[in-house]
């Protein structure tokens, strides 16, 4: 029976965070990160996952409401968490477009040493000039080149990590020198990077810190199949999950890798109750908190690419069509659809069929994979996804910071442990070990 992989996503900067709930705490104080991480470790989760962003997002020229607390640096937070956790993996999103291989390889190797082999990074890309302005690189990278640069970036980082071998740490006690004189020596010449020198951090405990990739596009799947240890995906049903699983695992094999060497981990939310009916009531309440009237209009604007602030959130969809233009109303955020006219037509049909106003429609169409029910039902459904090869586990996104994971750990985790699909105690010391991947050699 397959083991269920679980990760905890800190929900500070995503659409599903409920800011207005009285139980919601700070999105940026270190105590919030500590609480969620320690809760995840108490639940014997595999890793803690932290999002990141290189610029405050904007819509209609105004800072996006989810960014009001700023966007703290992932690696700094994870380094702090390394000191207050013992087993939990620590993974953060890092942009391969606006970083340099040497600097990032050094930081990740350092985190892996500080944590005893628990570091991981989620490789993301960006091609927009808006984000590039923070780096004086506005528009320099064509969209088609983002994965090309990312692939060379990952390859270069791994070359740097591999520049130290195990015997480079052996010291001659008489001469006081390294056994290998070439420790840290590297030279890379490629389309995007031309660097040479000596890497100054000894080989990390994991060899290569865990590499995660987020994306469901064809390019993203291919990139993950060739380079990643895990893929952060989205799919809402068992059928869709199985199709994605088969597709990506086949791509992995085509790259000469074992299908088990890439773990598929969709993001998922959850809502619990003593009964399934109570859980559904809780889920409905949470969704209405997540999609306020203001948020509904903002999300609709992201498809229509127009200022819709004058529309009634409880009223009908606009009769005008989305504005198809290269100039997006949202900045610093990926567009939610590649075909806005088609999406608008689908939403209009759904709204007419179910008699939905704007807010109720947005609530229905923007929900992600969610487990709703009693603890027993949620444990059963999570296990069914994994055992039927619809995923290898889940990255759970609670709706509250920092206590949103507490109920899951208290009520669902014991049931997964009783089934024998989730560890009762940690048996390995590294993040790669937790996921059954072993040290990268």
UniProtKB/TrEMBL annotation:
Luciferase-like domain boundaries: 24-388
Binding residue positions for FMN: 52, 93, 143, 147, 217
GO-annotated molecular function: monooxygenase activity; oxidoreductase activity, acting on paired donors, with incorporation or reduction of molecular oxygen
Keywords tagged on the record: Flavoprotein, FMN, Monooxygenase, Oxidoreductase
Pfam families to which the protein is assigned, alphabetical: Bac_luciferase
Family matches, as InterPro entries: Diverse_substr_monoxygenases (IPR051260), Luciferase-like_dom (IPR011251), Luciferase-like_sf (IPR036661), NTA_MOA (IPR016215)
Keyword Phosphoprotein: no
Family the UniProt entry places it in: Belongs to the NtaA/SnaA/DszA monooxygenase family.
Name of protein: Nitrilotriacetate monooxygenase component A
Species annotation: Streptosporangium carneum
């Amino acid at each position: 029976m397959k083991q269920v992989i679980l990760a905890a996503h800190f929900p500070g900067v995503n659409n599903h965070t409920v800011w207005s709930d009285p139980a919601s705490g700070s999105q940026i104080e270190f105590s919030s990160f500590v609480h969620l991480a320690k809760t995840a470790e108490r639940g014997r989760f595999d890793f803690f996952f932290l999002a990141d962003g290189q610029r405050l997002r904007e819509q209609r020229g105004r800072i996006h409401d989810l960014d009001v607390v700023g966007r703290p640096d992932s690696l700094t937070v994870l380094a702090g968490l390394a000191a207050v956790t013992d087993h939990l993996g620590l993974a953060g999103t890092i942009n391969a477009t606006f970083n340099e291989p040497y600097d990032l390889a050094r930081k990740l190797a350092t985190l892996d040493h500080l944590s005893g082999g628990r570091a991981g990074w989620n490789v993301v890309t960006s091609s927009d000039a808006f984000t590039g302005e923070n780096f004086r690189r506005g528009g320099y990278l064509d969209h088609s080149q983002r994965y090309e640069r990312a692939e060379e970036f990952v390859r270069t980082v791994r070359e740097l990590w591999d520049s130290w071998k195990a015997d480079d740490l052996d010291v001659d006690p008489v001469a006081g020198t390294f056994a290998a004189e070439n420790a840290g020596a590297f030279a890379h010449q490629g389309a995007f990077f031309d660097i040479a020198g000596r890497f100054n951090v000894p080989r990390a405990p994991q060899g290569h810190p865990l590499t995660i990739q987020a994306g469901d596009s064809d390019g993203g799947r291919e990139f993950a199949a060739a380079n990643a240890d895990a893929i952060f995906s989205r799919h809402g049903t068992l059928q869709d999950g199985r199709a994605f699983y088969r597709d990506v695992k086949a791509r992995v094999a085509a790259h000469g890798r074992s299908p088990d060497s890439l773990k598929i981990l969709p993001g998922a939310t959850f809502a619990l109750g003593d009964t399934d009916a109570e859980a559904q009531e809780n889920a409905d309440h949470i969704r209405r908190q997540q999609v306020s009237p203001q948020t509904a209009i903002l999300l609709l604007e992201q498809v229509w690419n127009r200022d819709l602030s004058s529309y009634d959130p409880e009223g009908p969809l606009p009769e005008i069509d989305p504005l198809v233009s290269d100039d997006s109303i949202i900045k610093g955020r990926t567009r939610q659809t590649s075909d806005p006219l088609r999406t608008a037509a689908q939403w209009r049909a759904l709204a007419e069929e179910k008699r939905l106003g704007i807010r109720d429609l947005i609530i229905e169409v923007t929900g992600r994979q969610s487990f709703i029910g009693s603890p027993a039902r949620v444990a059963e459904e999570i296990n069914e996804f994994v055992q039927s090869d619809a995923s290898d586990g889940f990255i759970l996104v609670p709706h509250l910071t920092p206590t949103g994971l507490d109920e899951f750990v208290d009520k669902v985790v014991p049931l997964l442990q009783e089934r024998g699909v989730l560890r009762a105690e940690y048996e390995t010391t590294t993040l790669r070990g937790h996921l059954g991947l072993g040290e990268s050699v």
